Amino acid sequence: MTCSLPIDFKSRIAAVDRKSQVFAPTLTHPAARYSCMKLARSINCCSIQMDTSAAAEVDRVAPEVVRFVAGSGDGVADSNLKRPQPSVSTLLMNFDNEFDPYDAVSTPLYQTATFKQPSATENGPYDYTRSGNPTRHDLESLLAKLDVADRAFCFTSGMAALTAVTRLVGAGEEIVAGDDLYGGSDRLLSQVVPKGGVVVKRVNMADLDQVEEAIGVKTRLVWLESPTNPRMQICDVRKIAELARKHGALVLVDNSIMSPVLSRPLELGADIVVHSATKFINGHSDVMAGVLAVKGEKLAKELYFLQNAEGSGLAPYDCWLVRRGIKTMVLRVKAQQESAQKIAEFLSSHPRVKKVNYAGLPTHPGHALHFTQASGGGSVLSFLTGSLALSKHVVESVKYFSITVSFGSVKSLISLPCFMSHASIPAAVRESRGLTEDLVRISVGIEDVEDLIADLDYALKTGPLL
C-alpha cells in the first residue's frame, strides 16, 4: 500500500530538527547518511510515493539520526574544538550546495522559468526565476561568503549591478565618484544618472583632500576603484569610508581588478562591493555577469527588490557557467599575478617604455598603501611609450595578446583604452585626467610568461622610432 505523500527525506529531518532546535538541515556523518540511504530505498522516485511503513520509519528514526549527528559529547576528546576557517581555494571546492536533494558534486542547473507551488494560497521557496532560482541562489551564497558579505546578488552584467546601485540615489542627492574609472561606469555617471536629477561630482580619489571637500550633507554614495582603471591609481579605502560615514553616505568599491582573492573591501569599511564577474570570477571570457556584495540587511533588501523589480538577475545557465569557472579562480589569479609582476618589471626596464602603472612595483607611488588593503598587485597593468604610433604598433604586433576590451581572462588581452573601453569619454576630459592616447593596458593570462615577455619585447623593438 502506498500513500501520496510529497516526501523528501531531508525535509523530514529538517522538520524534526527544527522541533528539537538542533541545526542539522543536511546529514554529513557517514553513519547517519547510511541510515538515510536505507530508508530512501523505499521511496518510489518516479511517483514520489513512499510505503506507509517506510514513512512511519522515517518519523521514528529521524529524531535519533538528528541526535546522532548533533552529538551529545560522549567520547569526544574536546567538544568545544572548532574547525579553522578554510582558505578561499578550499572554500571554492567545498562550498556546500544547500539546494540539491541529491548532493551532486557539481551544482545542478535549474533551467526553468517557473516553479510549481504547494497550493493555490501557499508559496514555495521559489516561484519565478526572475525572483529567485536555486542555481543563482547557490552562486550568490558562495560569493557572499567570499566577500565576507551579508548578501550577494548576481546581475546580467557589471553595469546592470552598478545601475541598480544608482537607483538608491534620489533626485537632488549626490554621488561623489572617482575621475579614473572604467569607461562604462564613466558613461553611466556622466550621461545617464544626471537625467534623474542626481548630482555627480568627480574627484581624484587618491587625493583625500579633494574627497573630503566633495563629500557633503547631500552625498548619498561615494564610488571608487582601487586600483583604478586604467591608470592603476591607489585609493585609501579605509579613510574614504571614514569620511563618507561622517555624512551617512554609502561607499561603493569596484573590486573587479582585484577579485575576492586579493582584496575584500567590505572589511576595509565599504558598504557595497561590485565585481564584473565576467572578469576574474568567471575567468574564461564566455559569460557576462555582475555581482553586488553588501553589508547590512536593510541595504540587501533594497538591492534585492531592485534586482527583482527590474528583472536584472543573472540567468540560471550563466550562473552555472560562473559557478563552474569560479572553482579555479584562486589558481588563475595567483598564476596571472606572478606573470604580471615579471612583465611589469621587464617593461619598467625597457628603453622604449616611459612609465609602467602597476601597484606591484615598489616604485609605484601607491605601492605601500595598496599592500595594506590587498594581498597582491593583480594581473592588470598599463604602460606608456610616449608615442601613439609606437603604442599602436605594439598592440597590433603582439602575437599572444588579443586586441580586445575586458580583462581577467585566462587569455592575455591588450588594448588602447582611449580608443576602446574609454572611448566614450571626451578627448579633452581624458587628457585633463592624465589618460593619454599612448597608454596601453594589458591583462595577463596564463600563457608562459617568457613567451609573453618575448612577444612584447619584439613588438617594442620593431616599432617606429620616435
Automatic annotation (TrEMBL):
The modification N6-(pyridoxal phosphate)lysine is found at K279. Belongs to the trans-sulfuration enzymes family. InterPro entries: Cys/Met-Metab_PyrdxlP-dep_enz (IPR000277), Cys_b_lyase_euk (IPR006238), Cys_met_metab_PP (IPR054542), PyrdxlP-dep_Trfase (IPR015424), PyrdxlP-dep_Trfase_major (IPR015421), PyrdxlP-dep_Trfase_small (IPR015422). GO terms for cellular component: cytoplasm. Pfam families: Cys_Met_Meta_PP. This is Cystathionine beta-lyase, chloroplastic. Its cofactor is pyridoxal 5'-phosphate. Its EC number is 4.4.1.13. GO terms for biological process: 'de novo' L-methionine biosynthetic process; transsulfuration. The keyword Chloroplast does not apply. Forms homodimers. May form homotetramers from two homodimers. The keyword Lyase applies. It catalyses: L,L-cystathionine + H2O = L-homocysteine + pyruvate + NH4(+). SUPFAM superfamilies: PLP-dependent transferases. It comes from the Eukaryota. Keywords: Amino-acid biosynthesis, Lyase, Methionine biosynthesis, Pyridoxal phosphate. GO terms for molecular function: cysteine-S-conjugate beta-lyase activity; pyridoxal phosphate binding. It comes from Kalanchoe fedtschenkoi.
